[in-house]
Design brief:
heterodimer; A: 361 residues; alpha/beta; Rossmann fold; 2 domains; 15 helices; 7 strands; 55% helix; B: 333 residues; 4-stranded parallel β-sheet; 14 helices; globular; binds iron/sulfur cluster
Amino acid sequence: MVITFPHMGRVYISVKALFDDLNVKLVVPPPVSKNTLELGTRLAPEMACLPLKINIGNYIESIKRGADTIILTGSCGPCRFGYYGVVQKEILKDLGYDVNIVILDAPNTGFKAFIDKIRMISGYSSLSSLMRAFRAAFKVTVEVDELMDIVLRKRPREKHKGETDRLLSRFEHDVLKVHGSTETLELVAIYKDKISVIAEDEKADPVRIGLVGEIYTLIEPYVNLNVEKKLGSLGVEVHRGITLTDWIKTHLSMDMKYKRARRNALDKAKPYLGRCIGGHAWETIAATVGFNEKGMDGVIQILPFGCMPEIVAESIIPTISRDLSLPAMTVTVDELTGEAGYMTRLEAFVDLLSQKKGMVS
Amino acid sequence: MKIGIPRALLWSIYLPLWKAFFNELGHEVVLSPPTNKKILNDGVTACVDDACLPVKIMHGHVIDLMDRADLIFIPRLISICPREYICPKFIGLPEMIRNSVAGGPKLLVLDFNAHKSIRHGYDGFIAIGRQLGARESAVRRALARAMKAQDEYTARLLGGSNPLMLLEGMALHAGIGGNKGTIGLIGHPYLLYDRFVSMDACRKLAQMGYRLIFPENILPEQIERTCSIYPKKLFWSYGKHLLGSGLAMLEKGMADGIIVLSSFGCGIDSFMVELLQRQNQRDFRIPLTVITLDEHSGNAGFDTRLEAFVDMLEWRDHNGHYFSPHGEGLYIC
Ligand code: SF4
Ligand code: SF4
């Protein structure tokens, strides 16, 4: 059995650490590229959401590299994500690929099924080594997210333009060469140090923007046209409304303190949206209000074309923006989104925020 | 009080229930007119661009009702069946309307959530009945009567009728040319039974001599059964309804051809249509076409598509290329 999985930003670092620790063969799909997107766009239904299309591209590129089992997480509605696995299986079946797709639905929808599937893909490791590996992989996720926080803080402040990203891409190159969680954590620690000490321009007083929106689009740089890096290069300090760590804590952990904090954060959405409507729209609204409290200069919402829950959020954001005098912009991405137009919109928004900030200070 | 019911989204399925409920409580019900150009334009202007056509049209109907009703009824149909949903946009509908329709329309929002159990769902009616100032016992009585009206309506749909005939008094008998065959028309009710949006497809096909069969005519048990081929429960009630009724039509040979009307940008359809097409391609291979509708669709192009489809059906008939939909088609490539 050779396992693969769909890309979502830097999730591959944790997944790789996990399966290395469990001694299970894994194919990390090649980074999402034009080829991945083209494969997906050609094979998936035209109106499917962008993440599904890119997943398909990932699978095919991984199958070509020997993978025979695909794992992905699921849910039971209301959004499409919960049915990705089934639709993807049908597509692969008609293409003649004989692969096994294991859909990991959240443990609360069937704990035993969850454990059985995990045991199966882990090559029937003992429960204790499983737990150990999962805990270590979670630690990797937390550490990588912290590394990214440092990167996001550094980019608008670095003295020598591009230094942070040079180190980040060296990290992404090196991380595929290490084995298991221990080595991965060591490497992350090294790069955290390296990036932390990058020389800063003392006069820098960056504009601060909060990113909200559909989780996959926010987390996968290829799909959001590397929005964090682009904004960083425009001198913006980016704050993320949702991270992988959040996602894992919400869906897989029993961390009660986190759950309470999350409830409180979601309560902020109440005047505008008081319930889950699928996807992460509730989080989007809550984070928009939360970003205002944290003193952000503006908020950008990113969604893939046709994303049902985020369209609801998109209707609400202008009201919040008016109520709180918080500049907000929505960007919809699809397979045809061009670099140039996208960059122009970001620049215009950042300009607006800088002017506003200049007037205040 | 005058309660406005927008003639949009699932009105054609639930009108008897909603109307009887409000009438029983002593309120007058006003319906917005059938969708027209102005309603469409108003909706498109008010609503966010990324939304699908039916949701935009809903906005237009709300705008139409604003100065004709004291309250506008907005059903938030979170779930109409245990462990299922309809669509995220149905759950966020009142929020979309509140934030996009200028002038602060006064909404009467029904929260219908049968995700846990059907009984839970009806609690929503009790709540709005109380909100309208009625005593709980009176609300329960009104609800019981309304549910009876709805049951009768549903039974007539399952008996082969359709909302166009029952609510709009439209005759849909196969017209000149006699009965040439049966076409399965599949899509969300707000596409099929909105004559403006569907560009009167039902009447046109009937006039071309075809009998029509709709998802609303297929028994729920049959839908459950056909959908059980998938390894995971379909958790969108209408998605399941479309796919399941399509599969039932294929399996039972109920239709000579299938036309799917789908809304551009519909997240649910993108999956359901894909699964239906693949199943047809594998096991049945009967003519199946998908027509995608959006606010720019024109009558001329639409008619051409319908005619081309009907021509294909007739051509197949005449040339003996008709093969039974019971599986032999599998080997013909
Ligand atoms: S949240 Fe958006 S992108 Fe994700 S499954 Fe739903 S529609 Fe697709
Ligand atoms: S089911 Fe499709 S057409 Fe209906 S509201 Fe949802 S996205 Fe729009």
